[in-house]
Amino acid sequence: MSSAKHSSGKFHCCEPRKRCVRSTRAGGAMADGPEPFDMRRIETLSNTIFGVAMTMLAYDFPKERLGAASPTWSNISVIYGSHLLALVLSFIVAGIFWLSHQRRLTYASKGGRPVVIMNLLFLLAIVGLPVTTGLFGSYPEARDVVTIYGLHLVLLSALNTVLWWMAAASGRDWHMVAGPALSTAIFVVAALASIVEPYATRFVWPLAFITPFVGSFAERKARRGS
Questions:
Q1: 27: domain range?
Q2: By the 8 A CB rule, do 163 and 122 touch?
Q3: Is 143 in the same domain as 174?
Q4: Best mean pLDDT range from 73-82, 151-160, 170-179
Q5: Which pLDDT score is estimated for 2?
Q6: Are residues 140 and 196 in the same domain?
């Protein structure tokens, strides 16, 4: 029987060909390498962040009374139109990324430190979504504003694609990355189009929102072929 040297953390004697395990001060066991992180903790945090991002702009609606004694649709649309557009857009965009995020956490329920860091960066980008969306809702025709919003969508989609790539790498399920990668490509095209003609982005962005169906098709095709 072989024995291991004692230190501040106690080492138990190990049988031949068995790995020694160090007891932590808390009484648990710690293996040679770091244990995978339970992504359910990220899920709890992400649900809160996504919930705030999807509803925050509702608190920015004007609270003052309308100028007319009996407001018409025209008066209401002038005051609330841009705010309503930003709210709906923020809700839809955040909702689509939330759906992809939840599917990924279900697909890969464990992750190492790089995966956790990338998830936190992704959630940080989600936090800023109401800011750029509200800016776009207020100035939808401004070239620089459209470009800023478009680049933010590129960042979100790119981080989501990297996270899917990291999740699919161990099993080489590359078909899982098809939808997010296509979405990123579409957002890049839209960002480039905003430099030339900002209005054109409104016809390109919706294409990215159908990519989940492309991803589902790729998954079904891969399952049939396996």
A1: 1-33
A2: yes
A3: yes
A4: 151-160
A5: 46
A6: yes
